[in-house]
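Researcher: Here's a chain I'd like modeled. Treat it as a single chain, no partners, no ligands.
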Amino acid sequence: GQRRIGPVNLQSLSDALDLSYATEKLRQACFLLSHQSVFRTDYRFGLLPAVVQLVEEQEWREHPGVAVYYSAYQALQHPEEERFFQEFYTALKKEEHLFPEEEKRALYLLAINFCIRQYNLGRRNLMPQQFELYRWGLEKGFLLANGVLSPFTYQNITILALVLGEEQWLEGFLEQYRPALAPEKRDTVHAFCQACLEVQRRQFGRALELLQRAEYGDLLLNLAAKTVQIKVYYEMGALQLLESHLSAMEGFIRRKKGLSYHRESYLHTVRFTRRLLELRPYDRAGRRKLREQIEQTGSVAEKDWLLKQL
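Model: Modeled as a single isolated chain. Structure tokens:
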């Protein structure tokens, strides 16, 4: 005859089902929250508050799958509290082997995108973790889609490596992953990133050559290249060239439609660079005032570099 399921078995089946649902609900909530923060969409989260309460009451946070998604959920809910992201980062490193490849990739991208949003808000404290996430993602192949690396990822990694002083590592990365860039963007994106590395090494002539040689069809990359040229001319002391470059760049920005918030960011950079050039060498009050204005202005391309000149 058929074996009857005993009460103990029923209880463990019920518990396993609850745990499975809680993990899946938290997973879905993480991706909805991440999407919501980018696309300004309001989602209904249904039973989520009850699930979070259950997880906390049952102490399911010790369960590896729940630990990863619960800490990710808390980080997304409270982005200003760094400890939640640190818990997510630690749990992901420790438990990643439990997840199938596609889910693992989604978790890495979730963590990286969280760091990018923090960086864009002016919070720079997660940069070392973001750099490590990129390195692991490259090693595991998570950052490539069908063997192709996005130019934005290539540029983001370049900027992070330069800020963190990883020039030697970056040199290897730029060459190794150049073939992974889409053919139509490859030469331009590589030239731009290599130019940024040369600026850091104070090889200004080489940087200028790379910036002027590339065909910058992409509008935002074109503006980023023009902004790097500002730094090069300033550092070289080529002030007349810089003056005419600023005028040309301002005209270029004003002519281009569809730049959205980037327009203000780059116009601020042009304006503040001009103010920097107008300062007299011993005008301490003027420097202090300019520093305050730059710090208080929300979006300024190359803000850190401008502040460093003061």
